[in-house]
Structure formats: C-alpha cells, structure tokens
Specification:
The chain is an all-beta fold. About 0% of the residues lie in helices and about 45% in strands. It is globular, with a radius of gyration of 14 Å.
Length: about 130
C-alpha cells in the first residue's frame, strides 16, 4: 500500500520558519514528479511547489518564491519543504503529492489532478 505521510506542521508566528517533511512508502518515487499543495477550508487546493524526478527542476507559486524551498532525497524516498519568513496567509493544510507518470510539459506540475498519490496533510498556522 502506497502511503505519503507529512510531518512538521505547527503553530508559528509571522516571520518564523518551518520545515515540512513527507515520507513515502509502498513504492519508490525516484524519477517521478512530486509536489506540495495547500488548502484552506472552503477553498480549492492550491499549488505551492514541485520538483522533478531527480531534483533538477523546481517550480514555485509566485506567493512563495524566495521564501520556500522544495527538495527531495530519492534514496530515502522523502520530500521536504523549507519555509522561511512565514506569513499569516500561508496558513493552510499542506499536502504532499506524487505522480506515477512522467510529464512532457512543465504545466503538469501545477495541477492537483495530475498527481496520483496524496498524503493526509499537515496543518500550518501562522499567527500575526
């Protein structure tokens, strides 16, 4: 059974940092795209960051560029999201996602429906 398990969320103050982790089990995602999305209750799931199969390419939402950094360790089958200078508008449930196919164009990274596996999410709350 394939599982993605996120950790590292919590309650922080504006300007603080957090590092989210996602541990995959049940299969390896080495070579396949992975990403982070976030969702606020009542709103659609929003793209945050993504990374290509071997980490050569990264993609970020404009709202997090310069503050968030995505990385992966294919040997450990893990995905991370380093977040600095957090803002109250970053408050959301953060989800790890992984694809089981390779994509021909970069546009695929930004759409939640293109990912096949999802974690249960970890809450990040940033107080002002």
């Amino acid at each position: 059974q394939v599982q993605l398990v996120e950790s590292g969320g919590g309650l922080v103050q504006a300007g603080d940092s957090l590092r989210l982790a996602c541990a995959a089990s049940g299969r390896t995602f080495s070579g396949y795209p992975m990403g982070w999305f976030r969702q606020v209750s009542g709103q659609e799931r929003e793209f945050v960051a993504a990374i290509s199969g071997y980490g050569g390419n990264t993609y970020y939402a404009d709202s997090v560029k310069g503050r968030f950094a995505i990385s992966r360790d294919n040997l450990k089958n893990t995905l991370s999201l380093q977040m600095i200078n957090l803002k109250p508008e970053d408050t959301a449930v953060y989800y790890c996602a992984a694809a089981s196919r390779l994509w021909l164009t970069d546009s695929y990274y930004y759409t939640p429906g293109n990912y096949n596996y999802w974690g249960q999410g970890t809450q990040v709350t940033v107080s002002s």
